[in-house]
Design brief:
With about 325 residues, the chain is an alpha+beta fold. It has 13 helices and four strands. Helix content is about 65%, strand content about 10%. The termini are far apart.
Length: about 325
Amino acid sequence: METGFLALVIFLGFIALWLIFYFIPMGMWFSALVSGVHISLLQLVLMRWRKVPPSIIVSSMIESTKAGLRLNPNELEAHYLAGGNVTSVVHALVSAQKANIMLDFKMATAIDLAGRDVFEAVQMSVNPKVINTPPVAAVAKDGIQLIAKARVTVRANIKQLVGGAGEETVLARVGEGIVSSIGSAESHKIVLENPDSISRVVLDKGLDAGTAFEILSIDIADIDVGKNIGAQLQMDQAEADKNIAQAKAEERRAMAVALEQENKAKAQDARAKVILAEAEVPLAMAEAFRNGNLGIMDYYKMKNVMADTQMRESIATPQKK
């Protein structure tokens, strides 16, 4: 019984000792003390209660102190509670100091809370980054398409990281500048002979205004000749003109056919009237004979005239072979 009670006491003692060392981080306090960081033990205990890891704050304070920076632990706690990355901010401040880049704690925390990697931004300020643009297609004035690829060397602009546009905007502006430069060239051969002219024109446009980067150089990595857009457009126009001409010709043919059918109908109507008139001639002649208005000699003379007229018509009309 006594043995079990003693084991329970020892177990509870270990738990109590663990709780004491958890809420009172003596090791961290001593490490900070020997590193020249002045932070009270009570402040470390309160960090536990505020759900702030003391290890992050202490290690960041030690790093900044060794680098010659004086940071306030309360400000580091506030940045952590705001959702910031304390370690990245301290790394960025130390790197900026070593590289003689003007960056204070307020600016660094603002960049970090804006969603950008402040440490990567400082590294990019020291070591510029190269961005490869996607293939950009443009057409010169002679109608030849050129496909260009560029390498844009950029450096982070610390002052514009908060509220400045990102890489996508830089790539879009560079692509627009390449299209404008190629489109203003009189011939694609001029662009192929002097590709650096594109870089000069694009750089003069100030495409990095309002962005988080500073464009150092734009180098044309590759230019390929694409389609003959001018010839293709002319072919398409010629095809469209041909279709229009065919449609108009078909319209005229349909109108001619309709006119021919109308003339045939009129001719048939005229022939029908002639036949009707010829059918009335014998009746009129018979009536003239009965009334004594037409004699036999007059009738023979009329027949002779009709026969002579038929003979003349047969002579004038060519015979079909």
